[in-house]
Write the structure tokens for this entry.
Amino acid sequence: DGSAASLLSYLIRRLADRRFLLLVTVRDPSEPSEACRKLLRDRSTDQQATTLSLGPLSLEAVRMLIESLEVTAATDLPERIHGLSGGNPFLALELLRDAGPLTTPEAE
């Protein structure tokens, strides 16, 4: 929001002579506040910022996410999770949690 962007602008100005890393996320870049747009514009202009636009997870990425949890699941689970989440990683994980306990592989 605008007050957070104003605070970040202030901190960046105060720390201008120091090296630091600041990670800022914007959930919905289509409707940032004017202060947020100005902050991003100013930092991009003076090459102090890099903007990364992240897209949704692909079906394969959702499949890999499920595999990384080392669970045995229905073969259509990746497709269902991908379809319901639209590739949103947070939502995909929440849907997996909401699905209840998934079977973990038997220990050897």
Summary: DSSP finds five helices and no strands in the chain. The two ends are 51 Å apart (CA to CA). Residues 59-98 form one domain.
